[in-house]
Each structure stands twice: as structure tokens, then as C-alpha cells.
Amino acid sequence: MRSVPVITSLLDNDLYKFTMWQAMLHRHPQTVAEYEFLCRNTPAFPLVDLLDELNEQLDHLCTLRFTEHELAYLAGLRFIKPDFVDFLRLFQFQRRFIRAWAEGNVLHVSAVGPQVHVTAFEIHVLATVNELYFRRFEQEKAMDTGRQRLQAKIDLLRAVDVAPRRTHPLEISDFGLRRRFSGAWQREVVATLRDELPEFFRGTSNVLLARDLDLVPIGTMAHEYLQAYQGLGVRLRDFQRAALEDWVQEYRGDLGIALTDVVGMDAFLADFDLYFAKLFDGLRQDSGDPIAWGEKAIAHYEKLRIDPHSKRLVFSDALDVPKVLAIYDHFADRAQVGFGVGTNLTNDVGCDTLNIVMKMVSANGQPVAKISDTPGKTLVKDGTFLAYLKQVFGVR
């Protein structure tokens, strides 16, 4: 191929892709899903300029297979089951399931097919678009700026006095694969944090880096897992409960952090009853006001007579180090807290970043939607379905 491959290993993906993938393979392998790419901000140049390179990269991606060493690593994770590893041994992306094209100055990417064959495209596409885009900027200058800014973050965290003053430790993980400056830069950032901040740095969502750098792979579920249940034949009002119940049955105590903002925190908590609150280890926030969200979570646990100190609140929405420290300061003596930091770790190099996503828009021919606690992050293709979903869950 003419350009250097962005993705060279199928392990270069977020852990929650594998955990959702396994759950859907076991529970709903027949699901047909549709994913669409979207850029939410204005880039420095039209992303359609990347179209030829992107198609070339997709051709390359569809030649990759999991190696035996990669499969052995996955098999060593106690929640990954042998039959899923056998499935991955046979797995190969099919080029006919993904298409990239231009409409005017707008780049479109769509993946349509059996969910167990198209779900893993998402992170690879986002990482590829990002890296192709940022290859057009001055690399050495960006990396030098990135190292300076990374050191400033390290210095700020080293100045934090957390023990024995605070009840719960400060724990930070890397969630920055999908919007990274490059694969090489993410690797350097994660290795630096591992070496420089062992007291705070917990791991990475990137399975390849977790393996290579001897770190804990971090992740449970994303929006697409719960959204899929909007199209799986259960009563729409019950889709969250059905998704959570299947997760409990699949993992039986492992991977116990539930995502709360597919239809908003209030609607989630209405379904997160004593049964689920006891079975799940905690909750993840990905939109809305983090302080307000955390207060609602703690109040919900207290209402159910569950000690919030026994539960974990994970924050992962547009975090930087000052925001992490402010949230930690607010909750560190009231519940276990964790932070998944993305773009601000892996793409803080002095260039304006892309706000790109590739989200599920339908399952089995039925529209699905996310009603975010941050209005700009609500995602839907069918406005009529969104209005119906809001009505069902009483969301304004």
C-alpha cells in the first residue's frame, strides 16, 4: 500500500469492543447492525481529502487476522471464553461490509452487516481517520509540544497529596485510542505514565498496549451494547433491563461497571434497582455534569441502603487533569472513583483535535438512539424514533 498502515494488529482496539463482542456473539449472534461515521466539529481541512488513503487503509485492515500470540493473551483474561477465542481465530473483516465515500466536502463511512462482523470496525476507523489527518501536520513539532504538556500533567499529579488524607485512591486510566494523534504517540504516552506515575496510573483501554506494556486492560460496555437492545424485540421500555440482565448472565461478577447515559441518568436509575445495584460494581459517566451525576449515583445507592464506599464511580467525559482533580476532590471520601482520560492524554500536542464518532444507528432494521445528558452528544438518524424514545422514558 502507498501509505504506512495505521492498524497493524487487531488487538489495537478497546477492551470494551471485545467484551461487548463476546456478549453479543453468545446472546444475539443474528443481529444485523448499522454504524455511521460523524465529525462533530470543523477540521482544518475537509476530511474527504483523506478518502483515497482511508479506503486503502480499510483494504489493509481487511487482510489482518488475530495471531496465535494475540489469541493466547485474550484467552488469559478470565472473562474471555474459549469459544469466543475460537471465533476470533477464524475472524477476518469483510470489505463488503464497510464503505467510505464523499458527498461534497463531507466524508461518509458506513458499516452494515452482522453485528459480530462489523462491531469492531468502529475504533479502527476512528483511529485511522485521526492518524491520517494528523500525518499532515508537522510531526516533530507536535510531538515536542505533546511531551512538554505530558510532563506538565505528570508534575501536576505528583503534587497531589492523596494519602493518607483521602479515603479512596486517585486512579487514572488511558481511554484515548479512538482520537489519538497516532499509535506511536499513544504508546509513548502510556509507557511514560506507567513509568512516571505508578501510584496513579491504573491501565489502558487499548488491549495491544496493555499486553505489550504489562498493564491492566480497562473497559466493560459502551453505548452500542445497550442501544442494540432497542432493536432486539424486547419492549422498548425494558431494553436497559434486558441488556443489563444479559451482561450479568454473561460475566457473572466480572466487568461490573454499567454505562448510564444511553437514555440519560434519571431514566437509567429508574431501571437500576436493588438487584442490579448489588450485582454491578459501579457506574460510568460519559456525559452531563459529573458532579451532579455523581451526587445522583450516591443518592441512589443510599436510597437502596447500599454503602457508596463499596461502589465505584468512573468518569470518562472530556476529562483533563484539572477536571480529574476537581472531581476527585469532591468524591474521594464518599465513594471509590476512577477516571478514564482520552483525547487530553493521547492528542494534546498543540493541534486542534477532531471530534469524531462512529455510532450504531440501527439494529435489525430498527432505528436506535442515544439520549445523552449532554445535548450535543445525542445521536440518532431517525427523529421520529427519538421522539418516541423520549416519550417512553419521560425525557424532555
From TrEMBL:
Signal peptide range equals none
* PTM annotation (Phosphohistidine): residues: H223
- Alphabetical UniProt keywords: Glycosyltransferase, Ligase, Phosphoprotein, Pyridine nucleotide biosynthesis, Transferase
Q: Name one GO cellular component term.
A: cytosol
According to the entry, every stretch annotated as the Nicotinate/nicotinamide phosphoribosyltransferase domain falls at 171-395
User: Which GO biological process categories is it annotated with?
Assistant: NAD+ biosynthetic process via the salvage pathway
PTM comment: Transiently phosphorylated on a His residue during the reaction cycle. Phosphorylation strongly increases the affinity for substrates and increases the rate of nicotinate D-ribonucleotide production. Dephosphorylation regenerates the low-affinity form of the enzyme, leading to product release.
Protein name, per record: Nicotinate phosphoribosyltransferase
Q: Source species, please?
A: Ramlibacter humi
